[in-house]
Design brief:
Order of helices and strands: HEHEEHEEEEEEHHEHHEHHEHEHEHHEH
CATH architecture: Alpha-Beta Barrel
Number of domains: 1
Largest sheet: 7 strands, parallel
Structural class: alpha/beta
Shape: globular
Strand content: 5-15%
Number of strands: 15
CATH topology: TIM Barrel
Strand order of the largest sheet: 4-10-11-12-13-14-15
Distance between the termini: 16 Å
CATH class: Alpha Beta
Helix content: 25-40%
Oligomer: single chain
Length: about 400
């Protein structure tokens, strides 16, 4: 099978010739820019620029020689046309983050400035202190104050923002041309991350402390807000999907972290009443326009209790498969999804075994996880979320080489 055929077999619950694998098909299956060159060295690959496509999480966009060496079957294209399927030298400019990442490149070096103590600023509100590996802001940019009236987006202003953000003809044309070039240049599956996002999330309007409470206090308002976002998401879908559906295999619908380490961020009833109807309509329209196209939802944490409703939403693929959260198992997740929804990720216990175990323990964890998740197909291998700066290259090689031997 070609890599694309392998991915499509798994997504259609058919047996692939080997385990399909991903690295950086989207922004939660990636690798830290701080470890990327060390990974290249461990793979005996020559130095190439560390292209940082997500400068908040500081993620490297892997070159195709890394994908080749690790046996990965997916390339990425983002809503602005950035891809790793081929070189785009005109987009990338040198910036080494105060000497911390030699050979690094970003799209907009002017976005950063450095304090005397080594703190790097990106824009007015986010910083990366010396020694840190990601940019941060107070409370992760999500206020924790719950006294007084809860902040809520003004619907008139929201409509104007959404109207201003509608995809323009030139954006669609440019993205279409990029996707067609990708299809001609690679036999890997093509994953479009944005810009068709539905844009509704339990943390997206005011933060994780605020919006779940607002869902309880004023569900009528939340319905209005979600109806508005769906209206514009469907406009984007109808404008874009017919133009790129022959060049893309997977499209993101949203990134919505419904779980923490132990439980849901809001009740299953909240998901069922305030989210499920909108996700159903969004997925249904994409599938109407392009029946072969697979939709992808990213949702972190202990979300086992809403898996049935995620299935009802028409979602084809769920990531990151954080089965250790909430005292659940890979077996329980697989039993819910088997033959109905592809699981993408979950290949190793990322918070315990991967950083703290021996290489042998990591390999055992991969073998046990994959044996469960890949049974009956419907599975693409990746870590649970990104490979962080603290994860040494020998651990990354262990998970991918173990997966390659399964």
């Amino acid at each position: 099978m070609t890599p694309r055929e392998r991915i499509l077999a798994a997504l259609n619950f058919q047996p692939p010739d080997r385990l399909p694998k991903d690295l950086a098909g989207m922004r939660s299956t990636g690798v830290s820019a701080f470890t990327y060159q060390a990974l290249r060295n461990a793979l005996d690959l020559p130095t190439k620029p560390t292209r940082i496509h997500d400068t908040g999480q500081m993620l490297a966009l892997p070159h195709t020689d890394v994908l080749d060496a690790l046996g990965c079957d997916v390339v990425s294209v983002e809503g602005d046309g950035v891809t790793n399927a081929f070189e785009q030298p005109e987009r990338w400019h040198d910036y080494d983050f105060n000497g911390r990442i030699p050979h690094a490149q970003v799209q907009n070096p002017a976005d950063y400035h450095v304090d005397a103590d080594g703190t790097i600023h990106q824009g007015p509100d986010t910083t990366m202190p010396s020694g840190a590996h990601v940019f941060e802001s107070e409370h992760g940019g999500q206020p924790l104050l719950l006294n007084g009236d809860l902040p809520r987006p003004d619907l008139k202003k929201t409509r104007k923002q959404l109207d201003d953000g509608q995809l323009k003809d030139d954006q669609i044309k440019s993205l279409r041309e990029t996707c067609r070039r990708i299809r001609q240049s690679t036999d890997r599956a093509v994953f479009l991350w944005g810009p068709t996002n539905l844009g509704i999330s339990i943390h997206g309007f005011g933060g994780l402390a605020v919006f779940p409470v607002l869902c309880l206090e004023d569900p009528a308002y939340v319905h209005e807000l979600h109806t508005l976002h769906l209206e514009y998401a469907l406009k984007n879908v109808r404008a874009l999907i017919p133009e790129i559906s022959d060049c893309v295999d997977i499209v993101s619908t949203d990134a919505d972290d419904w779980g923490n380490q132990l439980s849901l961020m809001a009740s299953p009833d909240t998901f069922h009443d305030l989210y499920l109807p909108y996700r159903q309509k969004h997925n249904a329209e994409i599938h109407r326009l392009a029946p072969h196209l697979k939709t992808f939802l990213h949702s972190c944490g202990a979300i086992y209790e809403i898996l049935d409703d995620i299935l009802k939403s028409g979602t084809d693929i769920l990531n990151p498969v954080q089965w250790p959260a909430g005292d659940r198992s890979a077996e329980q997740w697989k039993d819910k999804a088997r033959g109905k929804m592809t699981l993408w990720g979950g290949g190793v216990n990322a918070q315990h075994t991967l950083p703290g175990g021996t290489l042998e323990q990591i390999a055992d964890d991969v073998r046990q996880s994959v044996a469960v998740l890949a049974h009956d197909s419907g599975y693409v291998f990746a870590n649970i979320h990104n490979l962080l700066a603290e994860i040494a290259p020998d651990r990354i090689l262990t998970i991918y080489r173990t997966a390659a031997g399964i």
